[in-house]
Amino acid sequence: DCGRVVADAQVLPFKSGMCDLVICLGILHHLPDQYASLTEVGRVLKPGGRIFIQEPHRMSLNFFYHYGRRLFMKLFGVEKVKKMIGCFSPEEWQLDVKALKRAFKHGYTFKRWTILTFRLPPFRIFKKWKLDVSLSKFFDRLPVFKHFGTTIFYEVIKKER
Fold first, then answer.
1. Domain annotation for the chain: domains and CATH numbers
2. Sign of CA pseudo-dihedral 29, 39, 110, 106
3. CA distance 87 to 59
4. What is the pLDDT of residues 101-153, one digit of tens each?
5. Burial of 129 (0-12, 13-18, 19+ CB in 10 A)
6. pTM for this structure?
7. Which of 104, 140, 145, 160 suits a disulfide with 108, CB 3.0-4.6 Å?
């Protein structure tokens, strides 16, 4: 038990092999060097330890949100886009799946990954007209959208020596 710790994801203040479990909930897409952060997580993980990663799915329909947001920031500026979207971080990236696989290529197994349901981009207009819930429920019923859900989970297990 280490209590609450705030640290640089690329330089974690833990001994190697100290952690049984590392949970990364929606953080990696905010980091410019995901590979360095992932290898650091692997360093602190014990053999047999698990990493749970939850991130926005890069192949979701929110792909348009991600790249559209960047285009709108260039056209209208960050402040205008913040007002349109609400919850917003101008320095977001997509989960780098290649970095994830490269960081855990040797000595790890990917136990499973799951994509959750379709969701609309978080534009305030959808919430104002109450379209976000009703349209999401509609799209959830369509089988094609199970491959384009907004959230992806990875479970990575460090192999025993």
1. 19-158 (3.40.50.150)
2. positive
3. 21
4. 999 999 999 876 666 666 666 666 666 777 767 777 777 777 776 666 677 88
5. exposed
6. 0.71
7. 104
Q: How far apart are CA 39 and CA 102, in angstroms?
A: 9
- Beta-carbon neighbour count of residue 76 at 10 Å? 12
Q: Which tokens belong to 117?
A: 């349901």
| 121 against 83, higher pLDDT | 83
